[in-house]
Amino acid sequence: MSTSEQILLPDIGDFDAVDVIEVLVESGDVIEKETPLITLESDKATMDLPAPFAGTVTEIAVNVGDKIAQGSLIAVIQTDSSKTAPDRLITTETPQESTVDAPTVQDHTEPAKPPSHRPPTARRAADHQPPPSLPPLPTGQTGAVLASPAVRRLARELGVNLDQVEGSGRKNRILKEDLSQFVKSVLSLAHTGPIESDAGHPSQSGIPALPTVDFSRWGEIDRQPLSRIQKLSGAHLNRAWLNVPHVTQHEEADVTELEKFRASLTKEADDAGVRLTLLAFILKATAAALTHFPRFNASLDGDHLILKRYCHIGVAVDTHQGLLVPVIRDVDTQGVLQLAEALADISQRARDEQLKPDDLQGGCFTISSLGGIGGTAFTPIVNAPEVAILGVARKRVVPLWDGETFQPRSVLPLSLSYDHRAIDGAEGVRFVVHLKSLLEDIGRVLL
After folding, report:
1. What is the CA radius of gyration of the chain?
2. How high is the pLDDT of residue 155?
3. What is the pLDDT of residues 415-430, one digit of tens each?
4. I want to staple 122 with a disulfide (CB 3.0 to 4.6 A). Which of 107, 114, 118, 294 is the partner?
5. Residue 291 pLDDT exceeds 90
6. Is 386 exposed, middle or buried, given 0-12, 13-18 or 19+ CB atoms closer than 10 A?
7. Do residues 417 and 250 make contact, with C-beta atoms less than 8 angstroms apart?
8. Element (H, E) at 322
9. CB 324 within 8 A of CB 105
10. Are 345 and 332 in contact (CB under 8 A)?
11. DSSP letters for 279-304
């Protein structure tokens, strides 16, 4: 017997409402479980909403452009599809976009502002007085490109020919971010003329813009588009670098004894079915250091410092689409075996594009570990609105003097970057020295 099931919008994190930018199914479609139904867009991410079960779509309750909130009716599905002739069959074999497109993570990324919010001077430069090298925004559309109705409407308003826009979505679908980036690239040419003739002339942001260079003049080139995650995280990192006065403190921790202790836990780790890495111990020691130095577990809000009573730590994960920073909750309450399991789970889900929006939000502090790759030290960028980030480079064996002779010891390079508005230099040094002492004597975490 067939049953009609309603599909409601589940909890999607800290959003009052999100935009429907694409409807992927129609009434009469026979779908499988996990088939994408609609595409949602918040100010931090774009995600597909999958079907929780298989069946035949009998009603679509949303349209492109609608704003919906938790509990909103999305569709009605008849769970027994054998009695309904399908108009078209949709399967999950079609490649899908990432379910989470924002890195930081944790309030880390925001899409670029729509071109309609450009400063008046930028509009004048584009609409009335373009320099000879500035190509006008071509009008007219062939309709051969893939784009949602909302994107096509915006393109018509801006006078942009979608044939000239490179899409970064599934099957090269053009997204709002692609349209915005295209308009910005055209407008940026308006600034290159004055800047090339007067190198000190500032752009609208007060920072001289880089000139556009035709590199093909000197040889063959290959133009590759950035992934959506790279574009979003790049904008976030640029914003953080320009707004946060960074200071980086470097230190080295002798983790010889810690490595011996980690090796002694091999049986316990095998019994628990986890791979116990050094990063799990770094997470635990960092949580203890944040408890001892609460100003590092904070965010700036105007003239106030918001101290957080919880300890959620983000861990940078290298994926094929770019850098993501999923968050591990309540690190201070978990043991190293639990943390090792949580690390393995969230890292794998990041690489498999299975993270949820909530997995990327709520972080207090970030750890970026390059230990598996190499390096001796680096300057990580603070993951605003956090006030500090810890960079971990590759462990190496060096000879250290013990008072009588040189001994081979395992040394772990640490690089702590922090927001100098919230943290003084002396306090930054104390934090990293305290963290060093915890890693050198992990038993101090219990104090």
Report:
1. 26
2. 82
3. 999 999 999 999 999 9
4. 118
5. yes
6. buried
7. no
8. strand 322-324
9. yes
10. no
11. HHHHHHHHHHHHHH-GGGSEEEETTE
User: 339, exposed or middle or buried, with CB in 10 Å at 0-12, 13-18, 19+?
Assistant: buried
Residue 89 sits at the vertex; the CA angle it makes with 88 and 93, to the nearest 5 degrees, is: 140
- Cβ atoms of 385 and 373 within 8 Å: the answer is no
User: What is the per-residue pLDDT across 175-185, written as a single tens digit (0 to 9) for each?
Assistant: 888 888 888 77
What is the rounded CA–CA span in Å between residue 94 and residue 393? 39
Q: How does 183-211 read in b/e, with b if 16+ C-beta sit within 10 Å?
A: beebbbbbbbbbbeeeeeeeeeeeeebee
Note if 420 is an active site residue. yes
* Type of residue found at 152: R
Q: Name the pLDDT band for 162 (thresholds 50, 70, 90).
A: confident
Report pTM: 0.60
From 292, 304, 312, 420, active-site residue = 420
CB 3 within 8 A of CB 55: no
Percent of the chain with pLDDT over 70: 78
C-beta separation of 26 from 37 below 8 A? no
Instruction: Report the alpha-carbon distance of residue 108 to residue 381 in Å, rounded.
Output: 12
